[in-house]
Amino acid sequence: MNATTQAIIGRLPKKPLLTPAEVSSAYGLKSTGPILADIKTGKLVANKIGGQYIVSHAAAEAYVAANEYQPDEA
Question: What is each CA distance from 24 to 6, 7, 29, 60, 73, in whole angstroms?
């Protein structure tokens, strides 16, 4: 896991359930659009309760790790 991934995970709130806004904030995004898009396509696992998405902390960590950039070997 690279330092950027570790930093983003470290910025996630230390609670079991997160909102898409909290996940977006950990990335430094001003919009929840990219996070909501990834929820809707299944890239980020979430539950929908009363019209609101809820993301487990474990799912958010796995999502951040899965989105780590690995350049191709030259």
Answer: 15, 14, 5, 10, 30
Query: What is the identity of the amino acid at 41?
Result: T
The tens digit of pLDDT for each residue in 33-45 reads 999 999 999 999 9
List the CATH number of the domain containing 47: 1.10.10
- Beta-carbon-side half-sphere exposure of residue 47 (alpha carbons within 13 Å): 7
Q: Which residues are CB-contacts of 74 (< 8 A; sequence separation ≥ 6)?
A: none
- pTM of structure: 0.89
Asked if the structure places residue 74 within a domain, the reply is: no
* Sheet order of strands, 52-56 included: 17-18, 52-56, 47-49
